[in-house]
DNA sequence: ACGGTGATTTTTGTCGACAATTTTTCAAAG
DNA sequence: CTTTGAAAAATTGTCGACAAAAATCACCGT
């Protein structure tokens, strides 16, 4: 009856006809994000809306929205003339991102301490710590890194929740999404190296000390510990930027850091 | 020759045919922002894309982008079913926003101190302080509040620049755009009240102390001062939420705070 | 009268089209 | 061979159209 120009917008792209309720925006977001993080698009490259739209099998509109989202997350950069390019980070940018996350986590911890976080929440955090201990195991061989990552992420979120501030929580989510500032950014590649286990043990001690400070309502101590805790990531950053550069491929966004030469010698 | 469906998309709206190079997105952004801040849309109201598009004389596309932007800025809230509504803030949200800004400004100051901000930049900041002194005048009657606002904003940006960190600077811009967290959020209404001048004198003292701390490379002091400085805004917030509620109309986003009853008795 | 149910109207997400720029290409001149 | 300039191609911002979903409303049964 009616003209019906676009009956089936998802016709190609083999096997996805099933669930995929109704959001091609998510497809665009994940597709673009993956292409950036896995190096499909080199840093500085201009992102063509039409090309991506065709490759992902969606229209330009959701691609454009995905690009806006990734600009907010710091993966893309708006060009003055219009359009976006893959962001190019310096080591200093990543360092500042980590320091920023540490500072805001420090704020969350201070608020939790000063305002009196509910005991139930603190206990919940301690529960996660217990599970992290279990994931660590007793020897390095027994360590379940994937589970550690998941639990670590959970713990950081849970502590953010102790602040009782939705504003701070939201902001932490934001900075955690920045290229390599997230609390679990460098864990993927850590499974292979000797200093790893010791590093994780130190991190666990930080976790416990932070909770202790919150329970004792020692706000300044909690904040300082959070900043120091975040700085653990700096060591890993410099490792993967220096001697460990060969294995840097495992770290999601590291190809965005200027001076890295990772793309080749693959496959 | 060609069909040309939309020859002149900006035909109505009287006098704007001049500059307005090419961005109806800006029109949508400013129009929506104004309607929210001046109370044209009450908190909790759903924002209709079509209605706004028609009222502003643009298509739905730029309106939609403007809505995304304002969600990022914290003025709107996404509804789970789709679309946006005007955000409803609690006093606690605003307090946390102010604390967040203070903390990040504190980070900027600490970095500036620890990493050694260039003397030229510090001198530039001091220059702004001198101009603020001039704008303050000697008696309350001579105070030029508009100029004070402008210079205050400038000073905060300039100090953020001292950190030397684009990441921190960008984040400060972001949280400064949050509903009432900006450094000059409450200055508009301050012109009328007695405690005002003293408050501004204290603020100036903070400014000077912060610069002094940065120059002496006393990072912790600089950070603590920045947090304390931001908290000056708390007094004004409570004033306009309490006894001064009659005059709250002058404060841009205060109609978003739940429990405020300002919209009526106007005009 | 009231609560549930089905129809109608509004609203959103997505699409392709088009004009104004911006970028690239290519050729001629210095 | 480099530089300059103009033509051509590509890209972006914006628009109206449509289908699926949500919200609103009328109706009916108990």
Automatic annotation (TrEMBL), chains A, B:
One of its GO terms (molecular function) is DNA-binding transcription factor activity. It holds the Pfam family FCD. Residues 22-89 form the HTH gntR-type domain. Keywords: DNA-binding, Transcription, Transcription regulation. The keyword Magnesium does not apply. This is Transcriptional regulator, GntR family. InterPro entries: GntR_C (IPR011711), TF_FadR/GntR_C (IPR008920), Tscrpt_reg_HTH_GntR (IPR000524), WH-like_DNA-bd_sf (IPR036388), WH_DNA-bd_sf (IPR036390).
């Amino acid at each position: 009856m009616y003209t019906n120009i676009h009956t089936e917008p998802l016709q190609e792209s083999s096997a996805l006809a099933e669930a995929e309720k109704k959001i091609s925006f998510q497809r665009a977001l994940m597709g673009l994000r993956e292409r950036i993080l896995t190096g499909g698009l080199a840093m500085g490259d201009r992102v063509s809306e039409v090309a991506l739209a065709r490759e992902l099998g969606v229209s330009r509109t959701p691609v454009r929205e995905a690009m806006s989202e990734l600009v907010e997350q710091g993966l893309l950069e708006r060009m003055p003339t219009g359009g976006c390019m893959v962001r190019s980070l310096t080591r200093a940018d990543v360092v500042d991102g980590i320091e920023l996350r540490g500072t805001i986590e420090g704020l969350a911890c201070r608020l939790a301490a000063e305002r009196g976080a509910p005991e139930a929440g603190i206990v919940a955090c301690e529960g996660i710590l217990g599970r992290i201990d279990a994931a660590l195991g007793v020897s390095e061989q027994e360590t379940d890194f994937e589970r550690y990552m998941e639990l670590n992420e959970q713990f950081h979120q849970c502590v953010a929740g102790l602040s009782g501030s939705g504003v701070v929580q939201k902001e932490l989510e934001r900075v955690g999404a920045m290229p390599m500032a997230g609390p679990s950014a460098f864990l993927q590649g850590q499974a292979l190296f000797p200093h790893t286990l010791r590093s994780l043990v130190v991190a666990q001690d930080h976790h416990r000390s932070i909770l202790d400070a919150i329970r004792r309502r020692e706000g300044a101590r909690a904040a300082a510990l959070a900043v120091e805790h975040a700085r653990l990531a700096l060591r890993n950053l410099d490792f993967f930027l220096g001697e460990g550069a060969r294995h840097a491929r495992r770290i999601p966004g590291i190809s965005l850091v200027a001076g890295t030469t990772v793309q080749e010698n693959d496959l």
